[in-house]
Amino acid sequence: MSLKPRPAVFLDRDGTINEQMGYINHISRFHLLPEAASAIKLLNDHDIPVVVVSNQSGLARGYFPKELVDTVHDKMNNLLAEQGAQVDGIYICPHHPEAKEEKYRQECNCRKPKTGMLQQAAEDLNLDPARSFLVGDRWSDIKCAAQAGCTPVLVLTGYGKGDYEYISPGQEIQPDFVGENLLEAAEWIIRQIVKKP
Q1: How many CA atoms lie within 13 A of 114 on its CB side?
Q2: Which residue among 12, 137, 141, 163 is the active-site one?
Q3: Is 12 a catalytic residue?
Q4: Can you tell me whether residue 70 is helix, strand or coil?
Q5: Is 141 a known active-site residue?
Q6: pLDDT, tens digit, for every residue of 53-82?
Q7: pTM for this structure?
Q8: Domains along the sequence of the chain with CATH
Q9: 3-state helix, strand, coil in the chain (%, to 5)
């Protein structure tokens, strides 16, 4: 008998977990946001899977190698572990239609707002997107959540304040919750999951 798929929290990376720097083209540019580890630990403590889903078009554009992406994620995992937090999976989209490297030059199904990363994670980790949440700082995250059947959550870190003020009014799809940061979003998400187990 297979286990019932679980609700999860999908997290955008840049601007949600770490400071938005444009492209993280050097390890020195990666800095966790102050509340990020506490937020992820809170989700861990409630046994809610946490999965990072990140567009990495800088890789496609040749701004940095794949090795740097791996190094950044090693640093992220180590910084989270120092505070007792962990993520259950990391999925990236390395594609872009104008990629410098041919292997990355494609119209893929994984670049947010498309849903391929979430679908792959759901398959790999036995997750239920319809009972899950996607937290991000861009409207592409909100659209991705809606298309995947997840509950969309916007944080006002990274590009969030600008997207909320200038892009939100013209959009049909709106977030179910807007949080100052990832910790506020995580606290709200836990309340929703407790209400609807």
Answers
A1: 13
A2: 12
A3: yes
A4: helix
A5: no
A6: 999 999 999 999 999 999 999 999 999 999
A7: 0.96
A8: 19-195 (3.40.50.1000)
A9: 45, 15, 40
